UniProtKB/TrEMBL annotation, chains A, B:
Keywords: DNA-binding, Transcription, Transcription regulation. It comes from Prauserella muralis. InterPro entries: Carb_Metab_HTH_regulators (IPR050313), DeoR-like_C (IPR014036), DeoR_HTH (IPR001034), NagB/RpiA_transferase-like (IPR037171), Tscrpt_reg_HTH_DeoR_CS (IPR018356), WH-like_DNA-bd_sf (IPR036388), WH_DNA-bd_sf (IPR036390). This is DeoR family transcriptional regulator. SUPFAM superfamilies: NagB/RpiA/CoA transferase-like, Winged helix' DNA-binding domain.
Length: 271, 271
DNA sequence: GGAAAGGATCGCACATTATCGCACCCGAAT
DNA sequence: ATTCGGGTGCGATAATGTGCGATCCTTTCC
């Protein structure tokens, strides 16, 4: 059995019963306890479950934990993980990193916690929450001020003013839609304003967007496509769209969504 | 059964009935009384419940509202409730209200949610959380930016700059200590800075502090006693201290803590 | 084509830590 | 004063994580 299959089984089990114990999984899946523990570690890192003594439970506990709840955040989760992993390669110790809100950046923020000596500026309460859960003395997390939107982002003049006063080495932004004519868009007018401020405040502007965002149109434009220095998306994007984007954005990075929920092809040679 | 499952069951039970007994849980969950006690201890530490003789009851208000910082918030809870109720009388619809962090202001914020048409400016993530749980279109809640302290307050230049740019009708502040010589103090240097900015930004400065704060000295002074237009405290304060304070602060308001220890009645004392 | 190098995954042994129940004594309520 | 619940100390048991070696698959080189 493949590791990703095994992990799917674990998720299936925990979603059905609400909790799993290591010893039960050892018996059921026929692997050692260490393997199970490592699986749980990985799944916990992805936010799919929460490790507890003796096993794991669903993460549903804290309301501020996961943005938008499971329905939304699990969509394209494998893609988001892969995108986040790729984005992580662009961050180096000592950097000043900006992050907007959204589930993709939230996934990315989970990985970012392990990077030493960085300064994070964000207008997302959830992202700030992630870092403040286990504070590290070598990391500084700045939450911009402002008024909360339903998606828990801070917007408005306070946010804009705070963002304008910083200089970021790199800015990571999740968007709701990307389109040739309208660029990167969001359904929230005031969020677009803060997002624009973020773009202006950063030396390097990186957009994180899975392939389903292509062609989606939010009411407000954050920036044209060519404003992005890098766009990281996944290989689910069809060739035609890849070409379009490649012409416009600074650099287009495609990542392979590793070990999705179901899409495993054992022994297939690389294309 | 996993320990965390067991604790979930306990919470479920207590939220359904309002109270649990140790003996009942022993039977229902099939573990020893000591295990139950230890569970209750953990949950009480998290602020999910309050231990009483024979079992546990729900803490002050809705337990789901209480964030993780609640271990300390139950101390002097009755006093805080009474102080908060008194402070509420000073707020009128249409006002711009400032609030610092701390458990006393948090208690106050819960009452403030019912006041129509107000603007709240706070550097406390928890206070902002309270309002964003059920957003009202006639209320605006501004979170100042900044870096999080362990007590979940936002501090630093971003916070100060945001606070300086607003004008508040009234400012409510919880303090860590009050002392004749050193005035209102806090153990956190940078928090004092934002607190001072709050004082300067407001027309009317109200301090909320239960009687145990008297004589306590934090490392950093926020303001001298006479900077307070109003000081609301409880009648646990001895006469000698009352007199001292009355000389210095603009107005000293003493409230009676209802019911001594118990305070888990939703429809609380005054209107 | 095949062998060697590289990388990832998994299992085992070990030291460490957390959990639980029991016995015992203390404190609170009636 | 008596009874019931509460807390502390201890030992037994289970769970955890780290380091290491074995195995499998992929890649690379000849």
């Amino acid at each position: 059995m493949l590791a990703s299959q095994r992990r799917s089984r674990i998720l299936e089990e925990i979603r059905r019963t609400g909790a799993v114990r290591v010893s039960a999984l050892v018996e059921r899946l026929g692997v050692s306890d260490m393997t199970i523990r490592r699986d749980l570690e990985v799944l916990a890192q992805e936010g799919e479950l929460r490790k507890v003594h003796g096993g794991a439970v669903l993460p549903g506990g804290r309301s501020t934990e996961e943005p938008g709840f499971a329905a939304k955040s699990n969509r394209q989760n494998a893609e988001k993980q892969a995108i986040a992993a790729e984005a992580l390669r662009m961050v180096e110790p000592g950097m000043a990193v900006g992050m907007s809100g959204g589930t993709t950046t939230w996934t990315f923020a989970r990985l970012l916690r392990d990077v030493p000596d960085i300064t994070v500026v964000t207008n997302s309460v959830q992202v700030a929450d992630l870092f403040s859960r286990e504070p590290r003395s070598d990391q500084t997390v700045v939450l911009t001020g402002g008024i909360r939107t339903p998606s828990e982002a801070l917007v408005g003049p306070f946010a804009v003013s705070a963002i304008r006063s910083v200089n970021l080495d790199i800015m990571f932004m999740g968007v709701h839609g990307m389109d040739l004519r309208n660029g990167f868009t969001t359904p929230n007018l005031v969020e677009a304003e803060t997002d624009r401020a973020f773009v202006e405040a950063s030396r390097r502007f990186v957009v994180l967007a899975d392939h389903t965002k292509y062609g989606v149109l939010g009411i407000s434009t954050i920036a044209p496509l060519d404003a992005a220095d890098v766009l990281i998306t996944d290989s689910g994007l069809v060739e035609e769209h890849r070409a379009s984007l490649r012409e416009r954005v600074g650099e287009l990075v495609l990542v392979e969504a590793a070990g999705g929920e179901q899409s495993d092809e054992p022994g297939s040679s690389r294309a």
